[in-house]
Amino acid sequence: MNGIPLPGAIGEHARDILAGRVSPVAARDAATVVILRDGPPGLEVYMIRRKASMAFAAGAYVFPGGAVDPRDADHAVAWAGPPAAEWGATFGADESTARALVCAAVRETFEESGVLLAGPDAGSVVADTTGPGWEDDRLALIAKSLSFAEFLNRRGLVLRADLLRPWAHWITPEIESRRFDTRFFLAALPPGQRTRDVGGEADEVAWVRPAEAVERAHEGEIFLMPPTFHTLGELAEYGSVAEALATGRTIEAIMPAAVEVDGELRLLVPDMDYRMPGGRP
């Protein structure tokens, strides 16, 4: 039987959930952005490795992203591109939630990579975010002493929702103690901007080819969570940023589920040959 084994305390907690002895925690809305660029070997994605001390996905290579801040739904955020209602229809969310998800996607991308999907107007994008003032604002956003709307308004910028593309929707399994209802976006690295090691939750950053990352995960060299693994496997089919961004997507929520067969608990991830670190099935 395929799937991820759930031994020990994780398995016991899963049994409690399945038996109804414990109620699942609510999943928090979150957004993740896969930043793309055309490198010498082809399509590359930007990834960060979460510190081993992190409570969630410790040591995993992930894309920039995080939970929605309630202030992300603020209508004061200057906006260009598809309206929130259109994003809501795509992701199966109400308009307010959709607005918050798109804002969280752009905010978290800036916080975790230094890349900002915003510009002075609907037809331009910031060319450089590496100066000291930008770093002060990034740290203030992380500390939540500055809201995203305040940040954009102070700098006279407009969020460029048109630079994002919807890609996927993953919900953390009910057996987990930390759960996220995450929408995945794609975005090209804006001309003139560059990612940088911004620290915080990450201890390593890298640009990698999707197929290479999948292979390294199979070999046990790196740890990828199932949604990241699945997304990289899909992107490995594309040769350029333009090809990936032009792909039409029908977004359906995916939530891995725990099942027990012959006394063994496993987490089943739909339509995916996922292996744990070290190549174990």
Automatic annotation (TrEMBL):
Q: Which GO terms describe its molecular function?
A: hydrolase activity, acting on acid anhydrides, in phosphorus-containing anhydrides; metal ion binding
Task: Alphabetically list the UniProt keywords.
Answer: Hydrolase, Magnesium, Manganese, Metal-binding
- Where does the chain cross the membrane? none
Superkingdom, taxonomy of origin:
Bacteria
UniProt KW Metal-binding keyword = yes
Q: Which InterPro entries match?
A: NUDIX_hydrolase-like_dom_sf (IPR015797), NUDIX_hydrolase_dom (IPR000086), NUDT19 (IPR039121)
Q: Which SUPFAM superfamilies match?
A: Nudix
Q: Which cofactor does it need?
A: Mn(2+); Mg(2+)
What range(s) does the Nudix hydrolase domain occupy? 26-230
Instruction: Name the chain's protein.
Output: 8-oxo-dGTP pyrophosphatase MutT (NUDIX family)
Source species: Thermocatellispora tengchongensis
